[in-house]
Amino acid sequence: MPHTRPMPDQDKITRLNTEIDARRDDLIALTQDLIRIPTLNPPGENYRLICEYLETRLKPRGFECELIRAHETPGDSDKYPRWNIVARRNGTHAGDCVHFNSHTDVVELGQDWTRDPFGGELDGDKIYGRGSCDMKGGLAASIICAEAFIDTFPEFAGAIEISGTADEETGGFGGVAYLAEKGYFNPERVQHVIIPEPLGLDCICLGHRGVWWAEIETKGKIAHGSMPFLGDCAVRHMGAVLSEMETSLYPLLETKRTDMPVIPKGARQSTLNINSFHGGQSEPEAGFTGLPSPIVPDSARMIIDRRFLIEEDINDVQQEITDVLEKVKSERKDFQYDIREIQRVIPTMTAKDAPVVTAVAAAIQATLGKPAEYVVSPGSYDQKHIDRIGHLKNCIAYGPGILELAHQPDEYVEVSAMIDSAKVMGHSLIDLLLE
Question: Does 4 fall in a domain?
Answer without folding.
Answer: no
